[in-house]
Amino acid sequence: MYRVIQWGTGAVGTEMMTAILDHLDDLQLIGAKVYSEDKGGIDIGTLAGRAPIGVPATTDADAILALEADCVLYTPRTARVDEVCALLASGKNVATTAFMFHPQRMQAADRDRVLAACEAGASSVHGSGINPGNLSGVLPLALSGMSRTIDKITLQERADWSVYESTGITFDNMAFGQPVDAISPTATEFLAFNSSIFAEQVWFIGDSLGAQLDEVTATVEAVAAQEDHQIFDHLLRAGTTAGQRWNWAGMRDGVPLVEIETLWTVGGEYPRHWPSPQHGWTLTIEGDPSMRTHFLSLASFSRAASMEEHVRSANVATAMQVLNAVPAVCAAPPGFATTATLPLIRSRAGFSAQP
Ligand SMILES: NC(=O)c1ccc[n+]([C@@H]2O[C@H](COP(=O)([O-])OP(=O)(O)OC[C@H]3O[C@@H](n4cnc5c(N)ncnc54)[C@H](OP(=O)(O)O)[C@@H]3O)[C@@H](O)[C@H]2O)c1
After folding, report:
1. Distance between CA atoms of residues 325 and 103, nearest Å
2. What is the pTM of this model?
3. What topology is assigned to 2-129+316-353 in CATH?
4. Host H or E run for residue 256
5. Angle between the 307-323 and 11-23 helix axes, to the nearest 10 degrees?
6. Average model confidence (pLDDT) for the chain?
7. Where is the 2,4-diaminopentanoate dehydrogenase C-terminal domain (predicted)?
8. Which residues sit with their C-beta closer than 6 Å to ligand 1?
9. Does 354 have pLDDT greater than 80?
10. What number does the ligand 1 atom closest to the CA of 39 have?
11. How do the domains of the chain map onto residue ranges?
C-alpha cells in the first residue's frame, strides 16, 4: 500500500483523486493540501465527488509536512522549489505535473537544493504529464528507436484554450486577454517559468539523442482578438491577446535541430498566417526514415461525449502519466527520476474497469 497526499485539487489533481478512489486499491489518500479556504476541512472524497473517506483536506502546509507518506502528488497552479524541497527532505517522494522535467538543465542552484533535500529524506522527485511529459519526453525517444539517423525533431501543439476550465491559468498565468506587447518569454514570472519548462523539453530531447545543442532560443508571437469572446466567467476583449505562437528551438551551429512550437488560441479565431496542423500534437522526425505521428485525446472515439468530457480527457492523460508512475518513483534511488531514467510507465488499472 502506498500512502499518498494530493497537493492541489484543481483539474489535474481531481483526476488523480478520482482515479485513486475508483481504480487504484493499492494507493491510499491520507491527506490533501488545498489553497481555497472554502475547501479546507472538507473531506477529500467529497472534494473529488465521491463518498467521504474520513480525511479532511487542509490549507495548512505544515500539517501536510508532518504526515507520514510515501508520495506527494504535487499539482498546484504555481509550483515552488522550496515547497518540494521541504516535502522531499521530510522523506516523501514527489510526483508532479508542474516542473522538474529535465534536471540536467534546471538552474544549478535549484537543482542542488533539490538534490540535497532528496539526500536528506532518501526521496526522489519525478516531473511528467502530457506535454511536458509523455509527448515530449517519452514518445520522441520511443519513436527514435526506429531511426537510423535524425536531422530534426519538431513537436507542434495546437489547442484552443476556450474550453479549458482552468481560467486562472489561461488569463492570470498565461496572460491571454492582456495587450499583445505584454507577452514575451520574460514578461512575467509565470511566462518566464512556462517558457523555461518547454525550453527544458527541447534540451531533454537534444540531450537524450546526442544533438549537442549550443542553445535553446525562445520566441513568441502574440495575436489580438478580432472580437470579444466570453470564456467561462471571463470576457476576452477584442484587441487583446487571443493567440500565442511560441517557438523553442534547440540550435547547433545556427541550425535548429529540435523545435517545440505551440499554436495556442482562445476564442476560436485562428490566425491565417500560422501553420495549421491538426488539433492536438504532431510529432515529426525528419531523418532516415522520416516519421510523423499525431496525438489527440478525447473522452471517446466511439460514444457521444460532451465537450467538457473531451476537454477533461487531456487532464486525465496528464494526471495518469504521473499517477501511474508512483510505484516507480517510490522505488527509484534518491534524487531525480525522469522520463528517461524511469522504466516505461504503463496503465496500472489497465482493463480492470471492464464490467
Ligand atoms: N505536464 C503537463 O502536461 C501539464 C498539463 C496540464 C497542467 N499541468 C500543470 O499541472 C498543474 C495543475 O494544473 P491544473 O490544470 O490542475 O490547474 P487548476 O485547475 O488551475 O488547479 C490549480 C490548483 O492550484 C491551486 N492554487 C490556487 N491558488 C494557488 C496559489 N496561489 N499557488 C499555487 N497553487 C494555487 C488550486 O488550489 P485548490 O486545491 O484549493 O483548488 C488548485 O489545486 C499546473 O502546474 C499546470 O501547469 C501540466
Report:
1. 18
2. 0.94
3. Rossmann fold (3.40.50)
4. strand 255-265
5. 70
6. 96
7. 141-347
8. 8-13, 34-36, 39, 75-79, 97-98, 129-133, 166, 168-169, 318
9. no
10. 40
11. 2-129+316-353, 134-296
